[in-house]
Design goal:
Oligomer: single chain
Order of helices and strands: EEEEEEEEEEE
Largest sheet: 7 strands, mixed
Distance between the termini: 40 Å
Strand content: over 45%
Low-confidence stretches: none
Number of helices: 0
Number of strands: 11
Shape: globular
Helix content: under 10%
Mean pLDDT: 96
Structural class: mainly beta
């Protein structure tokens, strides 16, 4: 059974940092591009960042470029999202997602992913 389990979300002050983690129980983890999405109350789920299967390529939405860094450890079946200079607009539930390589290299669309975690809450107080 495939599971993606996010952790690391918490309440943090504006300007602070958090690192989110996602543990993936995927067979052949390196066959999957990984992504992070977020959803704030009353808003649609939006793309945050993605990383290629090898970790050699990363992609970000404009609002987080220069502040967030996505990374992965294929030996541990883990993907991370380092978030710095957090703003109140970053408050959301953050979701980890996995996309099988047969569907293409990566996607910024939520239904371009095959598996999802349950999410972890990040709250940034101003």
């Amino acid at each position: 059974q495939v599971q993606l389990a996010e952790s690391g979300g918490q309440l943090v002050q504006a300007g602070g940092s958090l690192r989110l983690s996602c543990a993936a129980s995927l067979r052949s983890f390196s066959n999957y591009a990984m992504g992070w999405f977020r959803q704030a109350p009353g808003r649609e789920r939006e793309f945050v960042a993605a990383i290629s299967r090898s970790g050699g390529n990363t992609y970000y939405t404009d609002s987080v470029k220069g502040r967030f860094t996505i990374s992965r450890d294929n030996a541990k079946n883990m993907v991370y999202l380092q978030m710095n200079s957090l703003k109140s607009d970053d408050t959301a539930v953050y979701y980890c997602a996995a996309r099988y390589f047969g569907r293409g290299s990566w996607s910024r669309v939520w239904d371009g992913y095959d598996y999802w975690g349950q999410g972890t809450q990040v709250t940034v107080s101003s």
